[in-house]
Design a protein that fits this description.
Layout (H helix, E strand, L loop, with lengths): L3 H4 L11 H14 L2 H8 L3 H15 L4 E3 L4 E3 L1 H24 L7 E7 L1 H8 L3 H7 L3 E7 L6 H4 L3 E5 L8 E14 L1 H7 L14 E3 L7 E6 L2 E6 L4 E3 L2 H9 L5 E4 H10 L3 E3 L8 E8 L8 H13 L13
Helix pairs in contact: 2-3, 2-4, 2-5, 3-4
Length: 321
């Protein structure tokens, strides 16, 4: 959201109110969840935000926000204005970008992804992204829980695995293969599993995600079979899963992308590769809205990620250590 129209709105705007600034402020209040959070982002007082919202309600003759000491939420009329207002503001941004002498993308882009993906995939690209688009600013939130893009005010989320049906639009960034692995110390202590049936005597590390599958897939005699994991330890953080495997806590099923350097250095060892299905897990950048109506700032980040995320090496094991 551009700041210029908001910054141009003084606390004591008269009858000739800056309608776009009022609309942008409503959108910001709705996405940040409170008047004070919106005020902090704008660098103005909460009373100035409250005054602007009250003036907008008075001009329209309807209540847009339901305020209490503990929370703020939109009324049905406020929700309608928020949803349509976002589209109006996006169209205005697009129009200004098309006719501007310098139409470089500008503004804040909020990105959400898992902790491990943020550290390994996104963070290394940030310097190059900002160099390519100096008018952009980024807000990166890391969470291994699936967040609601609208509720969290997220522009782009990077997600692994098959996507469930939703209103989101997805851009494919690449694929990575899954592998079951363990530390050399664990295998020395517990022995190497030679067949999926051997898993019963091993410590298995699993996921506590809501969408996590409770089994590991294998190919046995040409037939695809699913072996129940029966996890001894469950986690919801990719970095923690990797650290548990490195510490010798048990067998883990991780993507080659996340485990590549450990496999290359011999800190982790693949097991049961003769039974690996070879399934490739997709990685997408997802967003809400129509592809042809994205703000330039969001489109610039999506285009950059699609051009610079390289996962080709993550589809095969590194050379033996």
């Amino acid at each position: 959201m551009p700041d210029s129209r908001l910054a141009a709105l003084p606390d004591n705007s008269g009858p000739e109110a800056n309608r776009f600034a009022e609309l942008e402020m409503l959108v910001l209040v709705a996405e940040r969840g409170s008047l004070s959070a919106a005020a902090r982002q704008l660098g103005i007082s909460p009373s100035a935000v409250s005054k602007t919202m009250s003036r907008l309600e008075a001009r329209l003759g309807v209540q847009l926000l339901q305020r209490s000491t503990r929370r703020m939420q939109l009324t049905p009329e406020g929700s309608q204005l928020y949803e349509r207002g976002k589209r109006v503001l996006a169209d205005l941004d697009e129009l200004e970008a098309c006719v501007a002498v310098r139409s470089a993308p500008r503004g804040l882009v909020r990105i959400n992804t898992s902790s491990s993906t943020g550290k390994m995939l996104l963070v290394p690209l940030v310097p190059q992204l900002l160099a390519a688009h100096p008018g952009l600013s980024l807000e990166i939130s890391l969470s291994d829980q699936i967040v609601d893009l609208v509720e969290a005010g997220i522009d782009i989320a990077i997600r692994w695995g098959q996507l469930p049906p939703s209103d989101m639009v997805a851009r494919l960034l690449g694929h990575t293969r899954q592998v079951i692995l363990a530390s050399p110390a664990y295998l020395e202590r517990m022995g190497r599993p030679l067949h999926p049936t051997d898993l019963a005597r091993h410590v298995r590390l699993g996921w506590s995600y809501q969408r996590a599958i409770p089994h590991w897939p294998f190919l046995v005699d040409g037939q695809r079979v699913a072996v129940e994991i029966g996890e001894v330890v469950r986690v919801n953080d990719g970095d923690v899963m990797r650290e548990l495997a490195l510490a010798g806590a048990g067998l883990a099923r991780l993507s080659l992308y996340h485990a590549w350097e450990d496999l290359q250095a011999g800190r982790l060892v693949p097991v049961l590769e003769d039974f690996n299905t070879g399934d490739l897990e997709p990685i997408h950048a997802v967003y809400l809205g129509k592809p042809d109506r994205l703000p330039p700032r969001t489109r610039a980040v999506l285009d950059f990620l699609q051009a610079h995320v390289d996962l080709r090496h993550a589809q095969r094991l590194p050379a033996p250590h």
